[in-house]
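User: Structure with iron/sulfur cluster, tokens only please.
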Amino acid sequence: MSNSLKVPVNRIIPFSSVDGPGNRTAVFLQGCGFDCKYCHNPETRNLCVACGRCVQECPTGALTLVDNKVIFDYNKCCKCDTCIKVCKHGASPRIRWMEPAEVLEEVKSNMPFIRGVTTSGGECTTYPEFLKEFFRLCKDVGLTTLIDSNGSYDFSKDRELLEVTDGVMLDVKAYDLNEHINVTGTDNKMVLQNMEYLASVDKLFEVRTVVVPGLFDYEGTIAEVSNKLSAYKTNIRYKIIAFRPNGVRQEYRNYNSPDRAELDRLAEIAKSKGIKDINII
Amino acid sequence: MREISMERVNKTREEMLGVVKSDVLTHEQKVANMANLADSLLEVLDLPEGLDDLLNKGIDEQCICDLFEGHAPLRPRYIIPDYEKFMKEGSEFLQLDPPKDLLEAVNNLLIFYKHVPSVTNYPVYVGSLDKLLDPFVQDMDEEMAEKIIKMFLIHMDRTILDSFCHANIGPEPTKAGFIILKVIGQMQDAVPNLTMKVDKDLTSDELLLAGVNTALHSAKPSFANNKMFESELGKDYVIASCYNGLKLGGGSYTLCRLILGNIAKKATDVEDFINDKLPYVMDIMARYMDERIRFEVEESGFFENNFLAKEGFIHRDRFTAMFGLVGLADAVNILMEKEGKTGRFGSNKEADDLGVRIMDKIDEFNTHHNNKYCEATDNHFLLHAQVGIAQDIDVTPGTRIPIGEEPEELIDHLKVISRFHKYFPSGTGDIFPIDATVHRNPEYVMDIIKGAINQDIRYLSFYGSDSDVIRITGYLVKKSEIEKLENHENVKHDTTALGMGAKHNGHILERKVR
Ligand code: SF4
Ligand code: SF4
Ligand code: SF4
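Assistant:
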């Protein structure tokens, strides 16, 4: 196997109840092209530039700077998260560069308690070649494969990837172009194209929208997305997620969380447009 | 019968008066306590030498505990009547004909329950309810069936005043089974405790998922590995009391437990524990159990005179006895310290390996000890991971990992317990509070159960971390009822007091939420 398939793994959660159906191992890859204001894992967006700041602040000496690279010693780390708080580059020094087979080895130790894997991020489709090989290996041992994506990757051009992917959980952060740019710093043409394409080839497992009062017209987004999805026969789930401040960068933490009544109202809107499976989190 | 001192008689009389005047015990609890105190004055057993020193000590020293079975056992500890036979044939003693419809069926059962003795004076097993009731719900109005079964269950909760009372469902899906899960999911009652037998070849996903949904709301059912129990006890096993595997139409004469942590305190090091202190205590406990069994079978007259035996609802030769233990984790941690090592049970391979070595030793002892009245289980006792009692302080139930020391990841927790469940045909189990968000993904819990029964894990319980009914150690208690008791109000179930003890001494509300 060539070295090019090594990817930066931010972390692997052995049992996850929130990354798709049943119990799954969730693999978080480092790196994302979006810059969402409400990102809960801002430290997963970029790769480390070895500025050395976290190395100085780490209380346990788990980090060292060697040859212009940060070396992370897992056994010394006390999981205090100081490093990711002080990093100015949206990165984390606690990543491991891993081959698909190495990731699979870790996943396998969770069998038979899991039914599959979900790759997430950051944005895991930053590494399509890794995903293809990793998912192939997962399929060989009988695991199902899901991708959690912000929709920036052109799935329609990668049949090979979709062949080994059971479904995509797609974030639609805002339906309106300008709002999407305001929320994420990027346009959403590819996101909306992916939504319809994946729905048409029956690979869209779930669509998600984070509800952030005051940031964008989430009601319009949910209504428009529901409208589009109801045209497809398959039973696509709409997950409506309440904004929560944990993990969010200080400067964006002041948004309010929507209350239950508001979330129920949104679910009603999705339902009235023909969405059957609605999940409020 | 041996003489006892007047001093002891007077002490017991004082205690009896205390019971009479108690402001927290209900009438039934007072009567039961009075009987136990009266029994404590009897001295009819021929006790093995050395027992007194191991048995009659405070909880920080005691090595053997007989769990309040009394001095002259007048009935076996746990009785498992053959309710199928009762449904088919009725009972002469109770003047009941076989039921013809659902109302008659539940009425007959409720009558029968009042005549099933046990150590708590309430039945510890109330039947495989789905199988017993299924024939009667087939051609019936579903709403009416639900209503009758709901009333049946409420009746049990309000009259069987002890949570060591267990019903079974599964492994096959039945109409009655779904109704039972549905109505239990509408209530949050502690009684009866419920186990679903789970078998990958027999249990449908639909039934398992219905069980998980009910458990997340009502803290029951728990889930038992059907193939594992069947391979050890045969097809006619049931789950009774906390989580005890026993034979239908039989039961357990007695249950005593080793308090492993206190035995470890007496040892100088690991080898001394394994080769000297532990075998010494095991030998005395086994002979003590032999003597209790001898009295029950040869002298008490129970098996000759009780209608359950006379009418064939129980058979003496289907009984066995439970060789219990608590505090494997405590013993391992104490011994590791004595060896100058820091590893702790549940998070360190060497410590876990020592746990396995201790269990192998206990298992080996048990398979070499014979009791002629345990024919049902090849003349051996069955090992039992006892869940603890309210008085336990610094005693970890069975082979569990102490609360507060559970591994960060559930997978690592499951891997530890899968090394220990296989030793205990007469029961062990682990309990996991589950985060409320999982209510929206019950298949998460289902996947874990399916994995578990593939990995030699015997028995698992889950409850929603925000639920009022919670599982203490094996039995169920309502948090709201514990609060009542803390405010000195009467509560109907005697197990609530145990739950309060476990809350304060066992920190059960601090379990790691998954
Ligand atoms: S797409 Fe996801 S990972 Fe990327 S910035 Fe947005 S929220 Fe963060
Ligand atoms: S993780 Fe961030 S703070 Fe640490 S060296 Fe890399 S860029 Fe600098
Ligand atoms: S979390 Fe980061 S700062 Fe804290 S000990 Fe680990 S590496 Fe060091």
